[in-house]
Amino acid sequence: MRVLVLGGDGYLGWPTALHLSQCGHQVAVADNFARRQYDFELGVESLVPIETLQTRVETWRDLTGESMDVYVGDLTDADFTYRMLREFRPEAVVHFAEQRAAPYSMIDRKHAVYTQVNNVVGTMNLLYAIGEIDPDIHLVKLGTMGEYGTPEIDIEEGWLEVEHKGRRDRVLYPKRPGSFYHLSKVHDSHNMEFTCRIWGLRATDLNQGVVYGQATPETMLDDRLATRFDYDAVFGTVLNRFVIQAVLGHPLTVYGTGGQRRGIIDIRDTVRCVQLACENPADRGEFRVFNQMTEAKSVQEMAETVERCFPGDVRIDHLDNPRVEREEHYYNVVHTRLLDLGLSPHLLSDTLITSLFDVAKRYAGRVKDEALRPKVNWREQSGPVQET
Questions:
Q1: What confidence tens digit (pLDDT) does each residue in 278-297 have?
Q2: Tens digit of pLDDT for each residue in 169-183?
Q3: pLDDT tens digits along 210-226
Q4: How many CB atoms are located within 10 Å of the residue 381 CB?
């Protein structure tokens, strides 16, 4: 299968491209390198050093004999998007090419507008390009569990059967996102469903939980194939951040009570989920949603797991929550469709945590301590970006 991975230089996009290539698919990657620019803006860099995309692709070819086409450009540029699809002629497009951090989207007006324009316009250009060039292309797009919020009912996989005044219907599950980033993903979901229903496109929306981990079997073949490991309070996912704090001897910073529950998933399962979605495409006219998570834990439970597993003293600190969110809530998520397709989950375990400690210890000297503390407050309309 010919698969185009958008955002192929990123934390998840790069290991996904490697995994799909290893599975025998012909892969191309595209990126505008905006994620690397965010590092310059925020004065932080990946804990694990990462090579240029060109070096990564050349290393993969030298090790495996498998080549990848590379496209450099921006999805908000419609001409680039159309040209890329016409040249590569993908059967599936895996879409990771969006600004992915909730805190980044909440810094101020400029960052909120950028996030929405980048994410929503880029996806709209892509949907139009698919519709005009080849409606049979299967769009596999990374969404987020954060679209749903924390409703008082079970979270179904994208759709909800409702009964109202004696009549029944099937509707998209109601969304209550918690940031301008999450809201951009909601817009994407509605635009995708609309184009499937009106134009007969085919799309899979992967509503993913919080990802942890840094290595996949493919990235472990050579240090030059390593993907990012973000630890800072803007882009670092919570479990990865806790691991860094434990290694450095810093307290684990839990926001509020820590009762917020999150769907979580190992990075190895992320790449496998994308593979399963590509190899089992949606039908023409079908918009389907997979809740891409393997288990749910509270933030406090994640901190306690790190505390228990770390071979040293660890303290947990509770900070005033900079986010506006319910800190104790019901959270029960249906996530069976990927399991039905063959996913065998890697659940959070002491062994996995220990492997993350090893990565953090190896590169601990690259950590900027000040980047670990939250500086973005949801209640303010403007706030300072971390200085270099």
A1: 999 999 999 999 999 999 99
A2: 999 999 999 999 999
A3: 999 999 999 999 999 99
A4: 9
Structure tokens at 36: 């690397």
Q: Look up residue 33 and give its amino acid.
A: F
Q: What gap in Å lies between CA 257 and CA 281, rounded to an integer?
A: 41
- What distance in Å separates the CA atoms of residue 131 and residue 122, rounded to the nearest whole number? 14
**What is the pTM assigned to this prediction?**
0.97
pLDDT at 80 over 50: yes
Handedness of CA 363, 368, 370, 372 (dihedral sign): negative
| Burial class of residue 376 in the structure, from the number of CB atoms within 10 Å of its CB (0-12 exposed, 13-18 middle, 19+ buried) | buried
Which are the catalytic amino acids? 144, 181, 185
- The DSSP line for 192-209 is HHHHHHHH--EEEEEEE-
SS3 content of the chain, % helix, strand, coil (to 5): 40, 20, 40
Give the strand pairing for 138-144 and 202-208: parallel
